[in-house]
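Sample 3 of the quickstart, ligand protoporphyrin IX containing FE:
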Amino acid sequence: MATSLDADVRPIIPDDIARIVIAPKSYTDDATIYGAFRWLREHMPLGIAQVPGYDPVWVVTKHADIKEVERNGKLFHNADHNPILVDQASDAFTRDINGGSIRILSSLTYMDPPEHASYRTLTSNWFLPGKISKLEDQIRMLARQSVDNLLSFDGECDFVRDFALHYPLRVIMTLFGVPPEDEPRMLKLTQEFFGVHDPEEQRPEMAADPVVAAKQWAASIEDFYTYFDKLSADRRERPTDDLLSLIANSRINGAPIPRDEANGYYVAIATAGHDTTSSSTAGGLHGMMVYPENWAKVKADPSLIPGLVDEAIRWTSPVKHFMRNATADTQVRGMDIRAMERLMICYTKSLRA
Ligand code: HEM
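Result:
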């Protein structure tokens, strides 16, 4: 194993494991992907994946290392490169259509200190437990409606399609301020936005394109912008107490929030808020089918439900990775990381492992 003392010998992840971790398709096959992460955690918890067509990246798989990197926003930037790993051809296309910049979406995930903090604080109070608990009655009502809908099926339904996709979507869109009739549009755009590598979600005209990831990403962002421009103008004229009004009317450095940054915020909330929670809702039920003894325990003692929610998020790991790059030469786990090298932070059940 390489250490800082033998800096020329760097820990290169074996080719078969590296290809699994980098290829989006592997994440549809539990046995393959968990096998690869198990190997990495046991043998090379911090190693370099070199896969043709992709930038070489440090693959970070241990909880402690992930925390260390994430907590140091000055040393490890999100957005000098793409905060999501895609192939080099897709990144080149994005730069091409975006005046040389990789920042195609001005959302928090594309921001670093000090810009990140000024945008994050705009909404952080809104998400504090005190504020959220005031919304509890409204959220409970939506939960009841969704459970009633579930019970209206005659003993059989598709849990993902008929429940897990819709309840979190309803909650987020209601708090955000998107009218219910537009929820299907938000769902479709989110699935395209996050599903750039999923043949089921690819726009037909782009499926065979080598830079499909970048093209579809750009197209769905444009559609989101068209939609949110209108809603944002409406909330500026007629503010309500929803999250959209808060963002639309917020100020940065004394001036109204710029259009791209407002839209970046809207897209982040309209996508990240329900896609993640739908996955953990469906994954939680799946987990109880795999471990029926846990299902029996929760049925017998509903006070276990908060723990079940946490465990469903851990077990499902709805977000698979984010990227960082070192801003200066540094070390993690005794390894020399050089300035501008990229790190792939892998959340897949790495939490607590
Ligand atoms: C199971 C639920 C969720 C999971 C697993 C999850 C996971 C994550 C992860 C891993 C990040 C990246 C953190 C980083 O780069 O250090 C993130 C960022 C973010 N998430 Fe979530 N998330 C969830 C729910 C939500 C919800 C409900 C919302 C909005 C209502 C949301 C909005 C965001 C935003 C705006 C960011 C960017 C934050 C920043 O850079 O400061 N997420 N999330």
